[in-house]
Design brief:
The chain has 141 residues and is mainly beta.
């Protein structure tokens, strides 16, 4: 589990050299599961979790969502409301359920909700999520 040690959460690079971080995801009654997430700056959402990972956690379906993929195509996905925790701080967000993926994605909405700045340094093999003071975070339009 990553910790905000001195307001910095330390991530890592996986075997494919993708930036990752460990978080906990929980359902409405508090069941928790540690997940390793690929940090995807091209994903505007909160979290995307494979179906075979989401349902054992007990995430409750809340609806569907239309997504525009990188190739411009539009697809529909099931969604759940869930809570994600990083160093004891929890935030609630919409979790997209992926039917055929095996990768958990952490997106830009996650970083915004936790007021985190992402610093990726592939030369020195470091991944950091730095807490930003709420007053330093610009308002979203």
């Amino acid at each position: 589990m990553a910790t905000l040690d001195g307001k910095v959460a330390i991530g890592f690079f996986n075997t494919n050299q993708d930036p990752c971080i460990d978080i906990e995801v929980s359902n409405p009654i508090g069941w928790k599961q540690k997940l390793t997430c690929l940090i995807d700056t091209g994903f505007t959402g909160f979290l995307s979790i494979p179906m075979f990972t989401a349902f054992p956690i007990g995430l409750l379906l809340s609806g569907t969502m239309s997504l525009t993929l990188a190739d411009g195509s539009t697809q529909f996905r099931l969604t759940c409301l869930g809570s994600a925790s990083l160093d004891g701080e929890a935030q609630v967000g919409v979790i997209i359920i992926e039917p055929s993926s095996d990768q958990v994605l952490l997106g830009m909405d996650f970083l915004r909700k936790f007021n985190l700045q992402l610093i990726v340094d592939p030369i020195n093999s470091t991944v950091e999520l730095r807490k930003i003071a709420a007053s330093a975070v610009p308002a979203t339009p």
